[in-house]
């Protein structure tokens, strides 16, 4: 049969990450002798005997006429959320087909896209070494697990032709035998990164020292979601900085518990903590931010923090005023300082370069 695979996230708004489930499906089907192709335009679906669609994000849109076709199967968290079924074992543990996106990469290069913008598709072996998380955070999709368990060996998804490894583990530091996974990664000898972020609250001296000495690729990524966790986050950051001065980023969730001025203040307070420990924030705006009277400041915060080169050089005030007066950045800035001058005077001049751990 001729199978057409659709990465719905890619065809809607685009994505920086290949769809791991589709790559496993492709590897499985090709191993059975089937013809498999990644569909890059919905107009091409008539060429295939069966269509398999996957999406990660609930907001990703798919033409209704496509979903009404009889030869369509679909799945993924974007369709079914936390209730999305697992892939069958033979597919889940199959070597991903890392060639599935080759045509897409070729087209993007011809359109002038640089290799560094495509490296997720070119340079990385991708997989899970562990699955699960016991936290059950309200905003997280991974609520069906009760603990962190071993999922697969690194060699099960490692492609020797690829320079790096990235891991989608939900809460790696919650796995009791975390050191065995790092042993495997050391043996393979390729730089790696945990893309979901690591739970800094579970950091201890052994874990910190081992991670700091590992062949880690890029920024270490943790999270600082709530201001009430400040004491433990600061304690763990102090431990982390006693082991390494390597680049470190923390996701900052905002507009989740509140979309009022208290949430803006809490976000700046968390940014200040990260500056003190020479860490970079990455603003994660919960979708409700669009309903806030401070929507513009949420936008400006993300623009400032999520560009590390700018964040490290400019205060928030300098960043906002660096834009032409006609830009929305300045409008959002002046609207806010006129309403909350005490907040702006307290936080807008904080500067990463003025803090030294």
Provide structural commentary.
This protein has 357 residues and is α/β, with parallel strands linked by helices. It has a domain at 1-122: Rossmann fold (3-Layer(aba) Sandwich). Helix content is 37%, strand content 14%. It has 16 helices and twelve strands. A four-stranded parallel beta sheet has the order 2-1-3-4. A three-stranded parallel beta sheet has the order 5-8-9. A three-stranded parallel beta sheet has the order 10-11-12. α15 (328-339) packs across α16 (341-347). The longest helix has 16 residues, at 261-276. The termini are far apart.
Reading the helices and strands in chain order gives EHHEEHEHHHHEEEEHEHEHEHEHHHHH
Secondary-structure class? alpha/beta
Shape: globular
- Strand order within the widest sheet? 2-1-3-4
Rg, Å, rounded: 22 Å
Overall mean pLDDT stands at: 94
Q: Termini distance?
A: 61 Å
Low-confidence sequence ranges: none
Portion in beta strands: 5-15%
The number of helical segments is 16
Percent of residues in helices comes to: 25-40%
Number of strands: 12
CATH topology of the domain at 1-122: Rossmann fold
């Amino acid at each position: 049969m001729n199978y057409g695979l659709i990465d719905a996230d890619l065809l809607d708004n685009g994505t920086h990450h290949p769809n791991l489930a589709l790559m496993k499906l492709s590897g499985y089907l090709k191993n059975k002798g089937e013809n498999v192709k990644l569909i890059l335009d919905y107009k091409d679906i008539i060429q295939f005997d069966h269509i398999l669609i996957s999406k990660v994000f609930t907001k990703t849109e798919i033409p209704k006429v496509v979903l009404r076709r009889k030869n369509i199967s679909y799945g993924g968290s974007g369709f079914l959320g936390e209730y999305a079924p697992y892939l069958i074992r033979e597919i889940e543990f199959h070597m991903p087909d890392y060639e599935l996106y080759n045509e897409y990469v070729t087209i993007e290069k011809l359109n002038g896209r640089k290799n560094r913008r495509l490296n997720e598709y070119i340079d990385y072996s991708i997989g899970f070494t562990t699955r699960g998380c016991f936290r059950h955070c309200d905003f997280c999709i991974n609520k069906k697990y009760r603990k962190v368990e071993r999922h697969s060996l690194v060699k099960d998804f490692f492609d020797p032709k690829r320079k790096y490894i990235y891991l989608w583990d939900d809460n790696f530091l919650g796995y009791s035998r975390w050191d065995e996974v790092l042993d495997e990664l050391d043996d393979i000898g390729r730089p790696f990164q945990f893309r979901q972020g690591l739970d800094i609250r579970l950091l201890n001296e052994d874990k910190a020292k081992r991670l700091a000495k590992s062949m880690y690729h890029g920024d270490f990524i943790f999270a600082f979601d709530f201001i009430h966790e400040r004491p433990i986050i600061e304690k763990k950051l102090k431990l982390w900085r006693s082991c390494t001065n390597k680049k470190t980023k923390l996701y900052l969730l905002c507009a989740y518990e509140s979309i009022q001025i208290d949430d803006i203040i809490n976000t700046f307070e968390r940014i200040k903590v990260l500056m003190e420990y020479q860490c970079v924030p990455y603003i994660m705006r919960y979708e409700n931010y669009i309903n806030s009277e401070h929507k513009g400041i949420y936008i400006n915060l993300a623009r400032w923090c999520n560009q590390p080169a700018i964040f490290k050089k400019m205060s928030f005030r300098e960043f906002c005023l660096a834009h032409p007066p006609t830009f929305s950045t300045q409008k959002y800035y002046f609207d806010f300082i006129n309403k909350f001058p005490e907040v702006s005077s307290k936080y807008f001049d904080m500067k990463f370069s003025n803090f030294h751990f």
